[in-house]
From TrEMBL:
<dbReference type="Pfam" id="PF12527">
    <property type="entry name" value="DUF3727"/>
</dbReference>
<protein>
    <submittedName>
        <fullName>DUF3727 domain-containing protein</fullName>
    </submittedName>
</protein>
<dbReference type="InterPro" id="IPR022203">
    <property type="entry name" value="DUF3727"/>
</dbReference>
<dbReference type="Pfam" id="PF06949">
    <property type="entry name" value="DUF1292"/>
</dbReference>
<dbReference type="InterPro" id="IPR009711">
    <property type="entry name" value="UPF0473"/>
</dbReference>
Amino acid sequence: MADEANEMRDAEVILADEAGRSLPCFIEQTIPIEDQEYLLLIPVDAPIEIFMWQADPDSDDEDEVLVDVDEADIDSLFATARAVLAEQDLILQRTALTLTAAGNLPEPNDEDCFTLEVDEGPDPQTEEFQILATFFQDDQEYTLCTPLEPLLFFAKENAVGDIELVTPEEFQQVRLQIEDKLFDVLD
């Protein structure tokens, strides 16, 4: 059984988006539920986020905060971001669902890592990132980061044999069953 799980982990599938971009992923886990097999996927290459520094609207000081770059702005930043990462022998790729970088990431250290609050409210969520590089374009500072926790996708094979993301609605319908199966594997 362990050999079968290891073979599955080595298997690759391709996720695609509406723009025709692809994202190669390893199958981390298969989760059979009723007559459907769900896949827990992890990108083959490192996911990359581009953040920009902006004045904090909630502060009277000159504090700045990191904010996500809009998808529409990535096209104008891509060539510069790619050149900056190339200096570290990383190849930035415009893949489906996320940017990725092929190559060996530097080992994270405390000076290059930060925690970002990604969900405000009564139970705020945080995400940890490693800074890979910074650059300026049009007098704006940008930071290229990779999350320290794996980026995971839930997917399934559709009727024509393509791998597609599970919709948020479908995920909510099977979430408890998926969690039960994942915790059974960990035991």
